[in-house]
Prior knowledge:
The chain is of the alpha+beta class and 537 residues long. The chain contains 20 helices and 16 strands.
Amino acid sequence: SSKWCRTRRFSDREGFELSGCGAMAPMNVAGSVKEVCGKLRQYPVQLLLAIFLVMCCGATKKFQLFPMPWVAGNSECRKLVSRVPGVGPANMKMNASNGRLYTVTTLEELKPDCQEKAEVFVFVGESFTITTAYLVFFGLTKAIFNFVTGVCCDRFGRKWTLVAGWVVAIPLPLMVIFAENWWTAALSNLFLGMQQALVWSATIFIMIDYFGKSNAGIAVGINETVGYTTISIVGVIAAAIMDEDSPRTTCYYVVITIILVGIVLGVAALKESKQVAAQEEAEVSGRAETVDEATLTWPSGRSVTFSKAQSAFVYTSFINGPLMSINFAGLMANFISGFAWGLFAKWMKNDYVVDGELMWTKLSKETIANITLCYGLPKGIFQWIFGFAGDRIGRRWLITGGLAMCTLGLVILAATGESASDPVAGFAAGSLFLGVGTAMMYSNNLAAVSDHTDPTWRSSALGAYRFWRDLGYAVGALINGAFADGVGIFGSVLLTAALTALSAICVGVFYREAETASAKAPMAVEAPVPEAVEAST
Protein backbone atom coordinates (compact mmCIF):
# COMPACT_ATOMS: atom_id res chain seq x y z
CA SER A 1 0.00 0.00 0.00
CA SER A 2 1.11 3.58 -0.59
CA LYS A 3 1.09 6.34 1.98
CA TRP A 4 0.55 9.88 0.72
CA CYS A 5 0.58 13.26 2.38
CA ARG A 6 -1.16 16.39 1.20
CA THR A 7 0.73 19.66 1.29
CA ARG A 8 -1.19 22.93 1.49
CA ARG A 9 0.57 26.10 0.47
CA PHE A 10 -1.05 29.29 1.66
CA SER A 11 -0.63 32.82 0.45
CA ASP A 12 2.04 35.15 1.85
CA ARG A 13 -0.67 36.87 3.87
CA GLU A 14 -1.35 33.63 5.75
CA GLY A 15 2.38 33.14 6.32
CA PHE A 16 2.67 29.38 6.75
CA GLU A 17 2.69 26.04 5.03
CA LEU A 18 0.84 22.93 6.21
CA SER A 19 2.73 19.78 5.38
CA GLY A 20 3.67 16.34 6.60
CA CYS A 21 0.16 15.00 7.27
CA GLY A 22 -1.09 18.07 9.02
CA ALA A 23 2.04 19.23 10.83
CA MET A 24 2.41 22.99 10.83
CA ALA A 25 5.70 24.67 10.02
CA PRO A 26 6.63 27.84 11.89
CA MET A 27 4.61 30.90 10.97
CA ASN A 28 5.96 34.34 10.26
CA VAL A 29 6.49 35.88 13.68
CA ALA A 30 6.09 39.48 12.53
CA GLY A 31 2.78 38.64 10.90
CA SER A 32 1.64 36.82 14.04
CA VAL A 33 2.51 39.79 16.25
CA LYS A 34 0.61 42.06 13.87
CA GLU A 35 -2.44 39.78 14.09
CA VAL A 36 -2.34 39.74 17.90
CA CYS A 37 -2.01 43.54 18.05
CA GLY A 38 -4.95 43.79 15.68
CA LYS A 39 -7.10 41.79 18.09
CA LEU A 40 -6.03 44.07 20.95
CA ARG A 41 -7.05 47.13 18.94
CA GLN A 42 -10.35 45.53 17.95
CA TYR A 43 -11.46 44.69 21.52
CA PRO A 44 -9.31 46.93 23.78
CA VAL A 45 -11.73 47.63 26.64
CA GLN A 46 -13.03 44.09 27.09
CA LEU A 47 -9.59 42.49 26.87
CA LEU A 48 -8.14 44.94 29.39
CA LEU A 49 -11.14 44.36 31.66
CA ALA A 50 -10.65 40.58 31.46
CA ILE A 51 -6.96 41.07 32.30
CA PHE A 52 -7.80 43.25 35.32
CA LEU A 53 -10.39 40.74 36.54
CA VAL A 54 -7.89 37.89 36.36
CA MET A 55 -5.50 40.07 38.39
CA CYS A 56 -8.24 40.44 41.02
CA CYS A 57 -8.84 36.69 40.89
CA GLY A 58 -5.15 35.92 41.42
CA ALA A 59 -4.90 38.41 44.28
CA THR A 60 -7.94 36.85 45.97
CA LYS A 61 -6.35 33.42 45.74
CA LYS A 62 -3.02 34.46 47.25
CA PHE A 63 -4.40 36.69 50.02
CA GLN A 64 -6.67 33.78 50.99
CA LEU A 65 -4.12 30.95 50.82
CA PHE A 66 -0.84 32.58 51.93
CA PRO A 67 -1.78 32.86 55.66
CA MET A 68 -3.13 29.29 55.82
CA PRO A 69 0.15 27.62 56.93
CA TRP A 70 0.18 30.08 59.86
CA VAL A 71 -3.54 29.76 60.67
CA ALA A 72 -2.88 26.19 61.85
CA GLY A 73 0.35 24.71 63.13
CA ASN A 74 2.30 23.07 65.91
CA SER A 75 1.69 24.17 69.48
CA GLU A 76 4.45 26.39 70.87
CA CYS A 77 3.68 25.38 74.45
CA ARG A 78 3.26 21.62 74.13
CA LYS A 79 5.01 18.96 72.10
CA LEU A 80 5.26 15.21 72.03
CA VAL A 81 8.64 13.70 72.99
CA SER A 82 10.03 10.18 73.15
CA ARG A 83 12.80 10.95 75.63
CA VAL A 84 13.04 12.93 78.87
CA PRO A 85 16.42 14.67 79.35
CA GLY A 86 18.36 13.07 82.22
CA VAL A 87 15.80 10.28 82.57
CA GLY A 88 15.96 8.36 79.28
CA PRO A 89 13.46 7.02 76.79
CA ALA A 90 9.76 7.18 77.59
CA ASN A 91 9.42 3.42 77.99
CA MET A 92 8.28 3.20 81.59
CA LYS A 93 5.87 0.42 82.39
CA MET A 94 2.67 0.85 84.37
CA ASN A 95 0.44 -1.79 85.98
CA ALA A 96 -3.24 -0.98 85.58
CA SER A 97 -6.09 -2.02 87.89
CA ASN A 98 -7.35 -4.41 85.20
CA GLY A 99 -4.20 -6.47 85.58
CA ARG A 100 -2.70 -5.41 82.25
CA LEU A 101 0.76 -3.93 81.78
CA TYR A 102 1.05 -0.66 79.80
CA THR A 103 4.20 0.88 78.32
CA VAL A 104 4.36 4.68 77.96
CA THR A 105 6.12 5.38 74.64
CA THR A 106 5.31 9.10 74.21
CA LEU A 107 5.27 11.96 76.66
CA GLU A 108 3.94 15.50 76.33
CA GLU A 109 6.40 18.25 77.15
CA LEU A 110 4.89 21.46 78.59
CA LYS A 111 6.59 24.86 78.59
CA PRO A 112 5.95 26.76 81.81
CA ASP A 113 4.45 30.25 81.54
CA CYS A 114 3.77 29.75 77.83
CA GLN A 115 0.75 31.18 76.03
CA GLU A 116 -0.48 30.07 72.61
CA LYS A 117 -1.23 32.58 69.87
CA ALA A 118 -4.91 33.44 70.24
CA GLU A 119 -5.69 33.51 66.49
CA VAL A 120 -3.82 30.30 65.60
CA PHE A 121 -5.37 26.83 65.72
CA VAL A 122 -2.70 24.62 67.28
CA PHE A 123 -2.02 20.90 67.19
CA VAL A 124 0.19 18.83 69.47
CA GLY A 125 2.08 16.76 66.95
CA GLU A 126 1.04 18.37 63.68
CA SER A 127 -0.30 16.08 60.96
CA PHE A 128 0.51 17.37 57.48
CA THR A 129 -2.52 15.51 56.13
CA ILE A 130 -4.77 17.58 58.40
CA THR A 131 -3.09 20.97 58.18
CA THR A 132 -2.88 20.87 54.37
CA ALA A 133 -6.50 19.68 54.08
CA TYR A 134 -7.54 23.15 52.92
CA LEU A 135 -5.85 22.37 49.59
CA VAL A 136 -7.94 19.20 49.27
CA PHE A 137 -11.15 21.19 49.75
CA PHE A 138 -9.95 23.88 47.34
CA GLY A 139 -8.76 21.44 44.68
CA LEU A 140 -11.79 19.15 44.69
CA THR A 141 -14.24 22.04 44.48
CA LYS A 142 -12.28 23.89 41.82
CA ALA A 143 -11.92 20.73 39.74
CA ILE A 144 -15.66 20.05 39.77
CA PHE A 145 -16.62 23.67 39.15
CA ASN A 146 -14.12 24.01 36.30
CA PHE A 147 -16.24 21.62 34.28
CA VAL A 148 -19.45 23.24 35.53
CA THR A 149 -18.02 26.60 34.44
CA GLY A 150 -17.30 25.33 30.95
CA VAL A 151 -20.85 24.09 30.57
CA CYS A 152 -22.32 27.30 32.01
CA CYS A 153 -20.18 29.48 29.74
CA ASP A 154 -21.32 27.54 26.67
CA ARG A 155 -24.95 27.58 27.76
CA PHE A 156 -25.51 30.85 29.65
CA GLY A 157 -22.57 32.95 28.55
CA ARG A 158 -19.30 34.14 30.02
CA LYS A 159 -20.45 37.38 31.71
CA TRP A 160 -22.98 36.04 34.21
CA THR A 161 -20.90 32.95 34.95
CA LEU A 162 -18.09 35.30 36.00
CA VAL A 163 -20.43 37.46 38.11
CA ALA A 164 -21.76 34.33 39.84
CA GLY A 165 -18.17 33.44 40.74
CA TRP A 166 -17.64 36.70 42.59
CA VAL A 167 -20.97 36.38 44.39
CA VAL A 168 -20.24 32.86 45.72
CA ALA A 169 -16.94 34.17 47.11
CA ILE A 170 -18.67 36.41 49.67
CA PRO A 171 -18.57 33.82 52.54
CA LEU A 172 -14.91 33.06 51.82
CA PRO A 173 -13.07 35.61 54.02
CA LEU A 174 -15.82 35.76 56.63
CA MET A 175 -15.49 32.05 57.45
CA VAL A 176 -11.78 32.48 58.21
CA ILE A 177 -12.14 35.72 60.18
CA PHE A 178 -14.87 34.36 62.45
CA ALA A 179 -13.79 30.69 62.55
CA GLU A 180 -13.82 28.98 65.94
CA ASN A 181 -11.85 25.92 64.81
CA TRP A 182 -9.45 24.86 62.09
CA TRP A 183 -12.00 22.94 60.05
CA THR A 184 -14.22 26.00 59.58
CA ALA A 185 -11.24 27.95 58.24
CA ALA A 186 -10.19 25.04 56.03
CA LEU A 187 -13.71 24.57 54.64
CA SER A 188 -13.80 28.21 53.54
CA ASN A 189 -11.64 27.09 50.65
CA LEU A 190 -14.62 25.28 49.16
CA PHE A 191 -15.87 28.75 48.22
CA LEU A 192 -12.41 29.73 46.97
CA GLY A 193 -12.48 26.73 44.63
CA MET A 194 -15.87 27.77 43.28
CA GLN A 195 -14.79 31.39 42.83
CA GLN A 196 -11.50 30.56 41.10
CA ALA A 197 -13.16 28.10 38.73
CA LEU A 198 -16.02 30.38 37.75
CA VAL A 199 -14.09 33.64 37.46
CA TRP A 200 -10.67 32.58 36.18
CA SER A 201 -12.07 30.06 33.69
CA ALA A 202 -14.51 32.64 32.35
CA THR A 203 -11.71 35.16 31.76
CA ILE A 204 -9.73 32.51 29.84
CA PHE A 205 -12.72 31.72 27.63
CA ILE A 206 -13.33 35.44 27.03
CA MET A 207 -9.74 36.02 25.93
CA ILE A 208 -9.70 32.97 23.63
CA ASP A 209 -13.00 34.20 22.12
CA TYR A 210 -11.48 37.57 21.27
CA PHE A 211 -8.04 36.37 20.14
CA GLY A 212 -9.38 33.38 18.19
CA LYS A 213 -8.46 29.72 18.15
CA SER A 214 -5.27 30.21 16.10
CA ASN A 215 -3.96 32.51 18.85
CA ALA A 216 -5.17 30.43 21.79
CA GLY A 217 -1.64 30.03 23.15
CA ILE A 218 -0.95 33.74 23.40
CA ALA A 219 -4.47 34.38 24.76
CA VAL A 220 -4.02 31.84 27.54
CA GLY A 221 -0.40 32.91 28.00
CA ILE A 222 -1.30 36.55 28.61
CA ASN A 223 -4.12 35.53 30.94
CA GLU A 224 -2.00 33.14 32.99
CA THR A 225 1.02 35.46 32.96
CA VAL A 226 -1.03 38.29 34.44
CA GLY A 227 -2.76 36.01 36.96
CA TYR A 228 0.29 34.17 38.24
CA THR A 229 2.54 37.22 38.21
CA THR A 230 -0.08 38.88 40.38
CA ILE A 231 -0.11 35.84 42.67
CA SER A 232 3.68 35.91 43.07
CA ILE A 233 3.81 39.65 43.83
CA VAL A 234 0.83 39.47 46.19
CA GLY A 235 2.67 36.71 48.08
CA VAL A 236 5.34 39.23 49.05
CA ILE A 237 2.68 41.84 49.93
CA ALA A 238 0.76 39.30 52.03
CA ALA A 239 3.92 38.40 53.94
CA ALA A 240 4.53 42.08 54.66
CA ILE A 241 1.03 42.86 55.98
CA MET A 242 0.29 39.55 57.76
CA ASP A 243 0.78 39.36 61.52
CA GLU A 244 2.00 35.87 62.48
CA ASP A 245 0.34 36.24 65.88
CA SER A 246 -2.97 37.17 64.24
CA PRO A 247 -2.97 35.73 60.70
CA ARG A 248 -6.77 35.81 60.26
CA THR A 249 -7.20 39.58 59.89
CA THR A 250 -5.47 41.90 57.41
CA CYS A 251 -5.23 39.65 54.35
CA TYR A 252 -8.87 38.67 54.62
CA TYR A 253 -10.03 42.30 54.87
CA VAL A 254 -8.30 42.85 51.51
CA VAL A 255 -10.15 39.82 50.07
CA ILE A 256 -13.50 41.39 51.02
CA THR A 257 -12.59 44.56 49.10
CA ILE A 258 -11.49 42.65 45.99
CA ILE A 259 -14.71 40.63 45.91
CA LEU A 260 -16.83 43.79 45.95
CA VAL A 261 -14.77 45.34 43.13
CA GLY A 262 -15.14 42.15 41.04
CA ILE A 263 -18.92 42.10 41.41
CA VAL A 264 -19.28 45.77 40.38
CA LEU A 265 -17.03 45.48 37.31
CA GLY A 266 -18.58 42.20 36.19
CA VAL A 267 -22.12 43.56 36.32
CA ALA A 268 -21.50 47.10 35.06
CA ALA A 269 -18.67 46.88 32.52
CA LEU A 270 -18.13 43.34 31.21
CA LYS A 271 -19.81 42.39 27.90
CA GLU A 272 -20.79 38.94 26.67
CA SER A 273 -18.31 37.29 24.25
CA LYS A 274 -20.15 34.05 23.51
CA GLN A 275 -21.37 35.37 20.15
CA VAL A 276 -17.76 35.93 19.07
CA ALA A 277 -17.04 32.20 19.48
CA ALA A 278 -20.25 31.34 17.58
CA GLN A 279 -19.16 33.60 14.72
CA GLU A 280 -15.73 31.92 14.61
CA GLU A 281 -17.39 28.49 14.48
CA ALA A 282 -19.58 29.66 11.59
CA GLU A 283 -16.56 30.88 9.66
CA VAL A 284 -14.59 27.69 10.24
CA SER A 285 -17.34 25.10 9.77
CA GLY A 286 -19.73 26.95 7.49
CA ARG A 287 -22.59 26.37 9.96
CA ALA A 288 -24.51 29.36 11.21
CA GLU A 289 -26.37 27.40 13.86
CA THR A 290 -25.02 26.06 17.15
CA VAL A 291 -25.29 22.30 17.62
CA ASP A 292 -25.98 21.27 21.22
CA GLU A 293 -25.78 17.50 20.78
CA ALA A 294 -23.37 14.87 19.51
CA THR A 295 -24.17 11.40 18.18
CA LEU A 296 -22.21 8.22 18.85
CA THR A 297 -22.72 5.50 16.24
CA TRP A 298 -21.76 1.93 17.15
CA PRO A 299 -20.49 -0.61 14.56
CA SER A 300 -23.94 -2.22 14.63
CA GLY A 301 -25.43 1.03 13.35
CA ARG A 302 -27.12 1.92 16.62
CA SER A 303 -26.82 5.62 17.45
CA VAL A 304 -26.87 7.31 20.86
CA THR A 305 -27.23 11.07 21.33
CA PHE A 306 -25.43 12.93 24.11
CA SER A 307 -25.43 16.53 25.22
CA LYS A 308 -22.54 18.70 24.09
CA ALA A 309 -21.23 18.92 27.66
CA GLN A 310 -21.26 15.14 28.18
CA SER A 311 -19.61 14.51 24.82
CA ALA A 312 -16.91 17.11 25.43
CA PHE A 313 -16.02 15.64 28.84
CA VAL A 314 -15.86 12.05 27.59
CA TYR A 315 -13.93 12.99 24.44
CA THR A 316 -11.38 15.12 26.29
CA SER A 317 -10.95 12.70 29.20
CA PHE A 318 -11.13 9.20 27.72
CA ILE A 319 -11.15 9.18 23.90
CA ASN A 320 -8.60 11.63 22.54
CA GLY A 321 -5.21 10.09 23.35
CA PRO A 322 -3.16 13.29 23.06
CA LEU A 323 -5.55 15.12 25.37
CA MET A 324 -5.39 12.30 27.92
CA SER A 325 -1.64 12.89 28.17
CA ILE A 326 -2.32 16.63 28.51
CA ASN A 327 -4.77 15.94 31.36
CA PHE A 328 -2.04 14.03 33.21
CA ALA A 329 0.43 16.87 32.60
CA GLY A 330 -2.08 19.38 33.94
CA LEU A 331 -2.77 17.28 37.02
CA MET A 332 0.96 17.19 37.77
CA ALA A 333 1.29 20.96 37.23
CA ASN A 334 -1.10 21.63 40.10
CA PHE A 335 0.16 18.65 42.09
CA ILE A 336 3.39 20.69 42.13
CA SER A 337 1.55 23.97 42.87
CA GLY A 338 -0.17 22.37 45.83
CA PHE A 339 3.19 21.20 47.12
CA ALA A 340 4.72 24.67 46.69
CA TRP A 341 1.90 26.45 48.54
CA GLY A 342 1.23 23.81 51.18
CA LEU A 343 3.77 21.21 52.23
CA PHE A 344 6.81 23.20 51.02
CA ALA A 345 5.71 26.25 53.05
CA LYS A 346 5.09 24.01 56.08
CA TRP A 347 8.54 22.48 55.62
CA MET A 348 10.21 25.90 55.64
CA LYS A 349 8.27 27.47 58.54
CA ASN A 350 9.28 24.77 61.05
CA ASP A 351 12.62 23.53 62.36
CA TYR A 352 13.58 20.46 60.29
CA VAL A 353 14.53 17.56 62.53
CA VAL A 354 15.53 14.09 61.27
CA ASP A 355 15.98 11.26 63.78
CA GLY A 356 16.27 13.75 66.60
CA GLU A 357 18.97 15.79 64.81
CA LEU A 358 18.29 19.41 63.82
CA MET A 359 19.08 19.78 60.11
CA TRP A 360 18.22 23.49 59.79
CA THR A 361 16.21 26.09 61.66
CA LYS A 362 12.88 27.47 60.50
CA LEU A 363 12.83 30.30 57.95
CA SER A 364 11.12 33.65 58.43
CA LYS A 365 7.85 34.44 56.66
CA GLU A 366 9.69 37.00 54.49
CA THR A 367 12.28 34.43 53.40
CA ILE A 368 9.52 31.92 52.65
CA ALA A 369 7.70 34.54 50.57
CA ASN A 370 10.88 35.30 48.60
CA ILE A 371 11.56 31.62 47.92
CA THR A 372 7.96 31.17 46.80
CA LEU A 373 8.45 34.23 44.58
CA CYS A 374 11.24 32.35 42.79
CA TYR A 375 8.59 29.81 41.82
CA GLY A 376 5.63 32.09 41.17
CA LEU A 377 7.26 34.99 39.31
CA PRO A 378 8.82 33.02 36.40
CA LYS A 379 5.70 30.86 36.30
CA GLY A 380 3.74 34.03 35.63
CA ILE A 381 6.11 36.19 33.57
CA PHE A 382 7.15 33.58 31.00
CA GLN A 383 3.78 32.01 30.22
CA TRP A 384 2.88 34.45 27.45
CA ILE A 385 6.27 33.86 25.81
CA PHE A 386 5.92 30.09 25.85
CA GLY A 387 2.26 30.36 24.82
CA PHE A 388 3.25 32.48 21.82
CA ALA A 389 6.02 30.02 20.97
CA GLY A 390 3.62 27.09 21.25
CA ASP A 391 1.30 28.68 18.68
CA ARG A 392 4.22 28.76 16.23
CA ILE A 393 6.39 25.70 16.90
CA GLY A 394 3.92 23.31 18.54
CA ARG A 395 3.07 22.30 22.09
CA ARG A 396 4.58 18.84 22.49
CA TRP A 397 8.21 19.51 23.32
CA LEU A 398 7.53 22.67 25.28
CA ILE A 399 5.22 20.71 27.58
CA THR A 400 7.62 17.76 27.80
CA GLY A 401 10.56 20.06 28.49
CA GLY A 402 8.60 21.94 31.14
CA LEU A 403 7.77 18.74 32.99
CA ALA A 404 11.41 17.63 32.79
CA MET A 405 12.56 20.96 34.24
CA CYS A 406 10.05 20.62 37.09
CA THR A 407 11.42 17.15 37.82
CA LEU A 408 14.92 18.58 38.10
CA GLY A 409 13.67 21.36 40.39
CA LEU A 410 12.03 18.85 42.73
CA VAL A 411 15.22 16.79 42.93
CA ILE A 412 17.16 19.95 43.86
CA LEU A 413 14.63 20.76 46.60
CA ALA A 414 14.80 17.24 48.04
CA ALA A 415 18.61 17.16 48.01
CA THR A 416 18.85 20.63 49.56
CA GLY A 417 16.37 19.96 52.33
CA GLU A 418 18.02 16.70 53.30
CA SER A 419 21.68 17.74 53.21
CA ALA A 420 22.10 21.52 53.55
CA SER A 421 22.49 23.30 56.89
CA ASP A 422 21.33 26.55 55.25
CA PRO A 423 18.75 25.61 52.60
CA VAL A 424 17.81 29.09 51.33
CA ALA A 425 19.98 29.13 48.17
CA GLY A 426 19.08 25.56 47.17
CA PHE A 427 15.39 26.11 47.82
CA ALA A 428 15.49 29.28 45.70
CA ALA A 429 17.24 27.47 42.83
CA GLY A 430 14.85 24.52 42.93
CA SER A 431 11.87 26.88 43.02
CA LEU A 432 13.22 28.73 39.99
CA PHE A 433 13.37 25.50 38.00
CA LEU A 434 9.81 24.69 39.09
CA GLY A 435 8.60 28.14 38.01
CA VAL A 436 10.21 28.14 34.56
CA GLY A 437 9.16 24.53 33.92
CA THR A 438 5.57 25.25 34.87
CA ALA A 439 5.54 28.35 32.65
CA MET A 440 6.67 26.25 29.68
CA MET A 441 3.73 23.88 29.94
CA TYR A 442 0.90 25.68 31.74
CA SER A 443 -0.59 27.84 28.99
CA ASN A 444 0.37 25.33 26.30
CA ASN A 445 -1.67 22.63 28.04
CA LEU A 446 -4.78 24.79 27.77
CA ALA A 447 -3.96 25.81 24.21
CA ALA A 448 -3.45 22.15 23.25
CA VAL A 449 -7.02 21.42 24.34
CA SER A 450 -8.21 24.39 22.30
CA ASP A 451 -6.29 23.07 19.28
CA HIS A 452 -8.11 19.73 19.45
CA THR A 453 -11.62 21.19 19.86
CA ASP A 454 -14.12 23.42 18.03
CA PRO A 455 -15.18 26.93 19.17
CA THR A 456 -18.80 26.03 20.05
CA TRP A 457 -17.81 23.31 22.55
CA ARG A 458 -14.35 24.62 23.41
CA SER A 459 -15.42 25.92 26.83
CA SER A 460 -16.80 22.52 27.85
CA ALA A 461 -13.61 20.78 26.69
CA LEU A 462 -11.41 23.29 28.51
CA GLY A 463 -13.59 22.81 31.58
CA ALA A 464 -12.97 19.06 31.38
CA TYR A 465 -9.20 19.59 31.17
CA ARG A 466 -9.28 22.07 34.06
CA PHE A 467 -11.23 19.47 36.08
CA TRP A 468 -8.33 17.02 35.80
CA ARG A 469 -5.69 19.74 36.18
CA ASP A 470 -7.08 21.19 39.41
CA LEU A 471 -7.77 17.75 40.80
CA GLY A 472 -3.98 17.85 41.18
CA TYR A 473 -4.34 20.20 44.16
CA ALA A 474 -6.43 17.64 46.04
CA VAL A 475 -4.54 14.55 44.90
CA GLY A 476 -1.22 16.24 45.63
CA ALA A 477 -2.26 17.42 49.09
CA LEU A 478 -3.53 13.95 50.05
CA ILE A 479 -0.56 12.00 48.67
CA ASN A 480 2.11 14.46 49.79
CA GLY A 481 0.54 14.83 53.22
CA ALA A 482 0.26 11.07 53.71
CA PHE A 483 3.84 10.45 52.55
CA ALA A 484 5.18 13.30 54.68
CA ASP A 485 3.45 11.86 57.75
CA GLY A 486 4.54 8.31 56.94
CA VAL A 487 8.06 8.45 55.48
CA GLY A 488 9.00 12.14 55.75
CA ILE A 489 8.95 15.19 53.51
CA PHE A 490 12.08 14.05 51.64
CA GLY A 491 10.28 10.93 50.39
CA SER A 492 7.20 12.95 49.51
CA VAL A 493 9.23 15.32 47.28
CA LEU A 494 10.97 12.42 45.51
CA LEU A 495 7.60 10.78 44.82
CA THR A 496 6.35 14.03 43.25
CA ALA A 497 9.50 14.14 41.09
CA ALA A 498 8.95 10.56 39.90
CA LEU A 499 5.31 11.21 38.94
CA THR A 500 6.30 14.40 37.11
CA ALA A 501 8.94 12.51 35.12
CA LEU A 502 6.34 9.87 34.21
CA SER A 503 4.02 12.61 32.94
CA ALA A 504 6.82 14.04 30.76
CA ILE A 505 7.33 10.62 29.19
CA CYS A 506 3.58 10.27 28.51
CA VAL A 507 3.38 13.62 26.71
CA GLY A 508 6.53 12.95 24.71
CA VAL A 509 5.23 9.56 23.56
CA PHE A 510 1.49 10.08 23.13
CA TYR A 511 0.83 13.75 22.33
CA ARG A 512 0.32 14.72 18.70
CA GLU A 513 -0.09 18.24 17.35
CA ALA A 514 -3.50 19.23 15.99
CA GLU A 515 -4.24 21.26 12.89
CA THR A 516 -5.17 24.77 14.04
CA ALA A 517 -8.08 26.84 12.86
CA SER A 518 -5.92 28.91 10.57
CA ALA A 519 -5.13 25.80 8.59
CA LYS A 520 -8.75 25.73 7.49
CA ALA A 521 -8.33 28.99 5.55
CA PRO A 522 -8.86 28.97 1.77
CA MET A 523 -5.89 27.60 -0.10
CA ALA A 524 -3.96 29.39 -2.81
CA VAL A 525 -2.43 26.17 -4.15
CA GLU A 526 -3.10 22.56 -3.24
CA ALA A 527 -1.08 19.65 -4.50
CA PRO A 528 -0.55 16.05 -3.41
CA VAL A 529 3.04 15.25 -2.50
CA PRO A 530 4.24 11.68 -1.96
CA GLU A 531 5.75 11.31 1.49
CA ALA A 532 6.74 7.68 1.62
CA VAL A 533 5.91 4.33 0.12
CA GLU A 534 5.45 1.45 2.53
CA ALA A 535 5.69 -2.10 1.18
CA SER A 536 2.77 -4.31 2.07
CA THR A 537 3.07 -8.00 2.46
